[in-house]
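Technical appendix A lists one of the benchmark inputs used to test multi-chain prediction within the project. The record comprises two sequence entries:
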Amino acid sequence: MSAQADTTVQNKATPQSVLRLTVNNHPGVLSHVCGLFARRSFNLEGVMIRPLHSTGGQHSRMWLLLNEYDKLEQVMRQTEKLRDVLSVEQHPLEGSVFEKTDGFFAGS
Amino acid sequence: MTDLAQPINASMPTPQAAKRLSGAQLIIQLLERQGITHIAGVPGGANLPMYDALPGSTIKHVLARHEQGAGFIAQGMARVSGQAQVCFASSGPGASNLVTAVADAHLDSVPLIAITGQVPQQMIGTDAFQEIDTFGLMLPITKHNWLVRSAEELLTVIPEAFRIALSGRPGPVSIDVPKDVQNQIIDIDTWPEPGVAAAKPTFEPSAIDAMLRKIREAQRPVLMIGGGIVYADACAQLRSFAEQLDIPSVQTFMGLGVLPHEHPLSLGMLGMHGARYTNYVLEECDLLIGLGVRFDDRATGKVEAFCPKAEIIHVDIDRSEIGKIKNPMLSINADVGEVLAQANAALEPMQRPLWQQRIAQLKTAHPLIKAGEDELFRPYGAIRAVAEILDDEANIATDVGQHQMWVAQAYPFNRPRQWISSGGLGTMGFGMPTAIGMALAQPQRKSICFSGDGSIMMNIQELATAAEENLDVKIIILNNGHLGLVRQQQTLFYQKNLNAVKFQQSVDFAMAAQSMGVKGVDLAQSADPLNDLRAALLEHGPCVINLPIDETEMVYPMVAPGGANADMIGGEA
């Protein structure tokens, strides 16, 4: 029990990172990004993707919430290699899509 | 023509010069425009339109007996030439059989283009006959992959596939083409430019100065040279760089042949089966310059204990490799050939007599022990005999296992792309079909495959392909009746609890070869084995040579998996 409690505290203490990606909007892009995170054991906590209005649906904005503070540089470099990923930027949690939608994940 | 999927859009006027082609014909013509001369493959229901479009093409098709064989034949062509090469498979089991060869290409950065047939688009997702999610299968083992949704898309996808396979760090791509896309008729009036490698990453010239300064200050520097130098075609620059700065050089498994075997600065292969002196030098080195390497675990051993006294400089074209395993004090994300060319223009030559003296001491005290080098029926003796019969023109492939490590340690490789082996994936069954591909790409060179009695069984069906093409492929089976490297690990690390490593049923490989139209020579039955070996190697045509060795032979030294490179087992002088 105490071990479990410890883990929870630790999880809260782990700094979360937010990545803001611009990607080509066509089938398979989500698979390429999520597949990369799965096979390299990068810890993905949240994903949000929608087409970008400004590009007439050509590009999408993809938001990723990560529990990978130490490996963040490596995560970004691997993600940049994907052919359909046009840009990768770090973004503060404040003002990100995850902060604004937090209420949807309150539970029950 | 009965399978014609979509009529051409009548509202689009057709220019005079337009060519009316099916998607399948378009694929073949785009591949011709890319300079493809050979395609290895296996036909099946979902790629039949491509096979219908092949006759009359300048491309010669090589019919493999298994799709994995086709993948490795294409790899063999790509690995010796550096050019992107193509393999074909049908949907379902055809595609899944290709997976191992594609994954192998991914780990060893080989430009392989896998083109698979897929069930028609309206049937995708219905569990149709021979339907499999090829896109999903290929996704984690390629640089990029596509499911093509229209014939028009092929005009961008095919050149883009070549561009991606050849750009930066090379690697495989896969293109899945539904049958209706292959059958779709479109009008082509302008052809896309063939896909070529993209421009190399730019780097700050000041990084060269910083690197040279660091190297000048170092007392005990070592170059770690890898496959990136082979792929950058930078062996001459590397040699000049090492010689002018007088830096001893360890070679990774993928970097063998970058420096000639007998070069005074070459310390041979590092890591799990490196010579003792090679790994000991790294214990003392104070600056390790990694050039076109990825710090693979077979090279580094336990990472925390690797080069414990050294700062690291890392040059690699793949930015994600920098800092992945080791944090360098200085890194350059660039083509290693361009870095070395600039460095060579800027450097001041120097000598390192003290460090070279220390290296010579270590080399004398802890050399690579090649036990049985004078006996044909012992591993090092067999390899030496083959090397003495051949010259540097021969290309040398291996399968995976003990024989592979003995060849890596002892064969005198003297030029890049002479040594062709499955490094990252360690695929048994790699060697013989790859040697077929080597012979197709460079028929003027002998194509040698060292194999074992375990590995050869994993793609032995391709002997028929070698016979059909009458290629100068020689397969030398170091036959110990066992899965030797597994036996070695059970002996060393599992208290000799030998299990599932002995083949109770042996195979007569000479007879198996003859059954598929390939000459078979069993040196165990030979009155003059060395002469028979020489005759078999020097005449033209495919040949399997069985060479029995003892199952108790071990590859030494050996670092235990997960162990530190300094803690080697065996191979002591």
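The first strand of chain A starts at residue 17 and ends at 24. Chain A has one domain: 14-101. Comparable benchmark entries are summarised in Table A2.
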